[in-house]
Structures are given as C-alpha cells and as structure tokens.
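Hi C.,

You asked whether I'd gotten around to modeling the 237-residue construct. I have! Everything is below, sequence then structure, no commentary in between.
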Amino acid sequence: MKIAVCDDEERIRKIIVSELNASFSDDEISCFCTGEDVLRVVEQDGYMPNIILLDIMMPGVSGMDVARKLRDISDDVVIIFITGEKQYVFDAFDVRAFHFLVKPFSNEKMVSVIKDAKEEIAKATLKPQKKYVMLNSRGSHIRLCVSDIIFAEVYGARIIVHTRTDEIEYYGHLSELEKLVGDGFFRTHRGYLVNLRFVKKYDAGKCYMAKGEALISKQNYPIFVKALMDYNKKRVE
C-alpha cells in the first residue's frame, strides 16, 4: 500500500515518516514538503497514494487545495489531514476527508487512524467492480470508467462526455449511452444525461454539476427531483 506524507515542517515530517516506517514496514512510504510536489508527481507521473497525511497550512498550494485536486481525480484515495488549526474541520467534509489529526497528536493515535483507514480500503475492495464503457473517439478506442462521467450532452451529431479530468467527443446517440451507463444517471433533457452523484444544485431549468451545467426540461423536472431524492436516500442508507 502507498502512504504519502506532506508537511512543510521538516521536524514533523521526520517524526511521522519514522513512525510509519516502523509501524508499516511493508508499505511504500513517500514524503513531500510542499503541495506543489504532490501535484507534480500526481499530474506528471500518474502517482496516486492509497493514503495521504496532509498538512493544511502550507506555503503556496495549501493542503486543502491538494485534497480537492486529488478528490477530483480519485474517489479512492484516503485523505487524513494533519494540522494545528481546528477551524478547518468543517472544510474537510468537502473533500470527504477520512480523519482530522490536530497537532500535537501521539504516534499511537496516528497509527490507529491509519490502521482504520487501511481497514476501510480493504472493505472497499470487496465492493462490486467498477463498470466501464468503450467509446470510439477520433479513431481511438477509449475505455471509460462510468463513475468518472459527470454528464454527457448532445452537440450536433456528436456526444460530448464530460469526465472529472477530460472531455471526450464521439459520434453516437445519447440514448445508447444512457443504456450503457445504467443506474445512477438521469436524462434531464433530450440533449443531456447527468450522473446524479455529481449534482451540486438545481433549479427549474438547470442542473449545476461538479463541473459544468445541464439543462432540465420542464416535463422532466418533477421526475428528476424524485430520482435525485431517491438516489441520495439510497446513498445514505
């Protein structure tokens, strides 16, 4: 398992890394002193830790900004904040942080939290495998994870699929994509298909997604509201 530590204080980094190496010797431990360093290896090298211990208050790119970027890319990374500032606890909910360690904390507490995180990761591996669809875009066959789709829209004869990190265009019919992706999606408009998971807010005419907007037709609005409520209820349960 890959565990990353990011803290601008060298003394804190050394203490944490030393304890991690002692307690989790079978794991790969990586150390970063700035948020920029983390984003660089994530964006350029495709590195993604299973667990990251992340300081919030750092010069330059803050830990919260790093967390948002990581969460945009991955649902699976476990984010554990380490900070001396308790007021950021509520911000941590926005990125679905696993835990919030307030400095100073004991090594025993940190190890306990990481063990809990590893148990959560183990449980997640028992869940049903992710679903994928194949799209033919500009001569290339793209294997796309359904859970990464935010929404899709019709643009002329093409479909534009908006994902967490990219936009994919291909020739096809939205009704065919709707059948492929299955549950968790809703056709808000004849030209739009949205992933209910990424709905941030809505009004009578628009659905505001995690990235971008989708139209809602008048006739579909009440059905959409019910579908979203049912979806959110299932997630809570």
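If it helps when you're writing up: The chain has a mean pLDDT of 90.

Thanks,
B.
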